[in-house]
Amino acid sequence: MGKGKIAAQVCHASLESYHKVLDRGMGIAEKWVQEGQAKIVLKVDSERDLYELYEQVKRTLPCEIIRDAGKTQINPGTATCIGIGPWEEEEIDKFTGKLKLL
Amino acid sequence: MGKGKIAAQVCHASLESYHKVLDRGMGIAEKWVQEGQAKIVLKVDSERDLYELYEQVKRTLPCEIIRDAGKTQINPGTATCIGIGPWEEEEIDKFTGKLKLL
Q: Which of A9, A80, A88, B26 has a CA that sits 20 to 30 A from residue A17's CA?
């Protein structure tokens, strides 16, 4: 994927996951927005790794996986990224701490 | 900027602009979310071009400019991107129609 397509996919994940946290009604999403809404973009090595990470994370943290409609650049239904949180940094790091920055 | 930093900046713009539209209370943001929240990422040639575009767009459409804190990769206060809408595609295209995909 090109840079613009990557950015759009990450935006989908960011907004979907943000809404999940918002729907929990705990004030975490609002606090995150007020405090500068930190976002960190990490990479995995494969789509399989992405699915495995998602299966692990979703047991305990609000997150969302993005599958692309596949109109451009990649095949329909390909998982492109997951969004996690906003949530406690330490809790997210348990799953993502070993991943490198994209 | 690297791909991950670009993606994070675009996410900031996307969420900020989304909130601006949401605050107008016209149902446009909610409709956009329900209908698949299309996002298109375009490029300009310079920071100056970005500011000029922002000055034009903000007169008529909900939009937001993102300035980076400059902790990594770029200087503090550098404008990295703007988010426009969600809004009527035709209205946005009046300003962005000649820009190329990132």
A: B26
- Whether ipTM exceeds 0.90: yes
Structure tokens at A86: 């906003």
CA torsion, ordered A47, A49, A53, A54, to nearest 10 deg: 20
Q: What is the pTM of this model?
A: 0.94
Question: Chain B contact for A12, CB < 8 A?
Answer: yes
Fold that domain B3-101 belongs to in CATH:
Bit1 (3.40.1490)
Cβ contact B10–A5 (<8 Å): no
- Whether the CA torsion A31, A33, A38, A42 is positive or negative: it is positive
All residues of chain A having their beta carbon less than 8 Å from the beta carbon of residue B11 are 7, 10-11, 14, 39
